[in-house]
Each structure stands twice: as structure tokens, then as C-alpha cells.
Amino acid sequence: MGPTQTDTSDAAAWASALDVPEEAVELYRRCDVIDLHIDSFIWSRILGYDLRARHRWTPTGRRYLGQVDIPRALDANLTGGMWSITTNPFRPASARRRAFTKNLTRLKSVLDSDDRVSRVRNVAEYRAARAEGRHGAFIAIQGGNALSAVSDLDLCQGDVVRITLVHMTTSAWGETSSPFNRLSRIRGLTDLGREFVTGCNEKRILVDLAHISPQGFWDAVEVHDPSQPLIVTHTGVNAVKQIWRNLDDDQIRAVADSGGCVGVILHELFLGGDPPTVEDFADHVEHLANVGGADLPAIGTDLDGMVTPPSDLRGHAHLPRLVAVLLRRGWDTDRIRKVLAGNALRTISALRG
After folding, report:
1. How many CA atoms lie within 13 Å of 41's alpha carbon, on the beta-carbon side?
2. 8 Å CB contact between 203 and 150
3. pLDDT per residue of the chain (353 residues) written in tens, 0 to 9
4. pTM
5. What residues contact 334, with CB distance under 8 A and at least 6 apart?
6. Torsion angles phi and psi, residue 138, rounded to 5
7. C-alpha dist (Å) from residue 99 to 2, 45, 154, 173, 300
8. If DSSP states are collapsed to H, E and C, what string results for the chain?
9. Ramachandran angles phi, psi of 189, nearest 5°
10. Please, what are the domains in the chain?
11. What are phi and psi of 177, to 5 degrees?
12. Are 308 and 64 in contact (CB under 8 A)?
């Protein structure tokens, strides 16, 4: 089998392959499992990567791409996920509106053409999909500059569940956290960025504060409708690994106070550890719970988003290892269910039903 292939057809075989207690696999199989950030569609656009086909091998091994497809997601009991349309930051602003419309149509077509998947916009639709044994696919945007104006939010047509305000580059909306963009004079959110947050609130689209600079984070918190939850879909925490991409404890509390959730990213650079392992991933989860409460931590892998996951947590089929670690640390079933999907679903439901 390829680098992210695991036999999941039988609980005992799955547990044996991962070297975890069968109890961990059985618990995992009974749970909903939601990934708040899957970036595989970018490779569909660039390389023609077929999300509907099972991919067994890529030249990059466990790194960067070829980490997720619909068959392997289903094998791994990934009951739902946010499938992201990622913005090309080098595309001229004048062309982004047209590109986004094209990409939204294309992603919807891919998801709608697979009878194992239901495209969903809220938790009620997700529950209906699950009742039919289907994966519930939410659509998201990474990089709000996919849209050239606040009025372009109308293009989302209710299909887009969340928008990451910025990505790896500073845009007209505001400043990225990336250290590679320090030549920009923009700091925090711009006035347009503030209007964009308000527009997302009005459209009941989750405002995702992954990738944004610290000042931009707090600018967004200030203007954001306090009755709506905030979300950070794929990040780590500075208390475990100090780095430009991760959240400090004040930011963690701000998201928790809004009733939102924070997804832990599956990228070695942001996890820490030498080498990073599932234990380090669990450290981030546990710190979120300790600071923001049990209703805060979630999973946002960023698989296929140019990430290198730990060697023992290479894909969704390895997530029972996280369950095993949390059980060993004394976590009860309810808290584990919240991490795997409960907190993500509660956050979406609070905004969209």
C-alpha cells in the first residue's frame, strides 16, 4: 500500500496496523469525524488530480500532495470535511472573480457527481447525508481575495460555509501572518477587510482567522458580530510550538469566548517535536482544551495543502492513534467525540443550523 494507505476494513486489522488498542479504533468508528480544512481541490485544478479516484502512490511520499481523495476519506471514516477553494495570490485581481466562479462550479460538480458524497451547507444537511451513509462535504474558501469586492460575497450563493480572510500573502483585505510578506505596508485589517468581515457576518459565513497576522486577528475580533462564532480551521498553538503561524493563549480565549472552535493542523513545522509525532499533535489539542475549554479543539489537517504530516499520522486513516493517545491521557469518550467532530458541528450549527 502507498504512504497513506491503511487497511480499515476490519477493526482488529486496523488496530494492528496502527499498533493501537482495538478500543481506540472501535471508538473512532462510532464517532463522526470532521476535517475543517482539506486542500485537495488545488491539485485537481493544477494537475488534474481526480478526487473521486483512489490514489495509492505519489512521488512525494507523505509530503505535500496526494494525501486525500474521496475513497480514502470514506475508508478512514471521515464523515465530513471542509473542501477548500484556495486562491492563487498571483492571479490579477481583475481575474479572480471569474476564476472563483469557475472553481466553485467545478468543485460542486465534482462533489455532486459522486454518489458517496453529499454537498452540504449546514448541520441539518450534514445529518441527512450521514443518515444516507454519505460523506458530508462543506465548501470553503482559503484566501478571501478570491473575491474582489464585498459585493462578490453574493457569488457564494449560500454554498460557501467559511472564508479564510487571508492566506500566505497580504491582500486588500488585510495582513497575512507569513514572514515572507513583510514588505507590504498593510498592517492588520484594512477598511475593506473590516467591511468584508461584516459582509461575511451578514451572509452567515464563518470568518476563519487562520493565516492572519496578530493585529489582523484582533481587528477582526473587534468588528466581528459578537453573536456569531469565530473559527480558526488549521493552526497550532504557541505554547507547544512558538512560530509565526500559531495562536497565543489570548487568541485561543477569544475564539473560545465567541463559541467557536480551533482545528489543529497536521504539519510538522507547526507541531514541533524532534521529530513530530501524534503525541505532539495531541499536545496542541490538549492545550486548546486546557486554555479554552473542552468545546474548543477540533481537527483541521490542511492535508494536500503543501504540508508534511508526522510519519505516524500521515493521513485520516491514522487518526485512531490520536484517540489512543487521548484515552491514555485520561480523556473520556465525550471529550474525544468533541475533538473529532462535535465542536466543529456545534460551531457550524450555531451560525447556519
Report:
1. 27
2. no
3. 344 467 788 999 999 999 999 999 999 999 999 999 999 999 988 899 999 999 987 778 788 889 999 999 999 999 999 999 998 877 887 788 899 999 999 999 999 999 999 999 999 999 999 999 999 999 999 999 999 889 999 999 999 999 999 998 888 899 989 887 777 777 899 999 999 999 999 999 999 999 999 999 999 999 999 999 999 999 999 999 999 999 999 999 999 999 999 999 999 999 999 999 999 999 999 999 999 999 999 999 999 999 999 999 999 999 999 999 999 999 999 999 999 999 999 999 999 99
4. 0.96
5. none
6. -90, 150
7. 33, 11, 15, 18, 25
8. CCCCCCCCCCHHHHHHHHCCCHHHHHHHHHCCCEEEEECCHHHHHHHCCCCCCCCCCCCCCCCCCCCCCHHHHHHCCCCEEEEEEECCCCCCHHHHHHHHHHHHHHHHHHHHCCCCEEECCCHHHHHHHHHCCCEEEEEEEECHHHCCCHHHHHHHCCCEEEEECCCCCCCCCECECCHHHCCCCCCCECHHHHHHHHHHHHHCCEEECCCECHHHHHHHHHHCCCCCCCEEEEECECCCCCCCCCECHHHHHHHHHHCCEEEECCCHHHHCCCCCCHHHHHHHHHHHHHHHCCCCEEECCCECCCCCCCCCCCCHHHCHHHHHHHHHCCCCHHHHHHHHHHHHHHHHHHHHC
9. -90, 145
10. 21-352 (3.20.20.140)
11. -80, -10
12. yes
C-alpha cell at 246: 500559531
Q: Supply 339's cell numbers.
A: 475533538
User: Which of 6, 91, 93 is CA-nearest to residue 54?
Assistant: 6
Residue bearing cell 480551521: 233
Q: How long a stretch of residues is the chain?
A: 353
Distances (CA, A) of 193 to 157, 166, 170, 175, 280: 20, 10, 11, 10, 34
The alpha carbon torsion through 242, 283, 25, 319 (nearest 10 deg) reads 0
In 3D space, the residue among 321, 310, 316 whose CA is nearest the CA of residue 271 turns out to be: 310
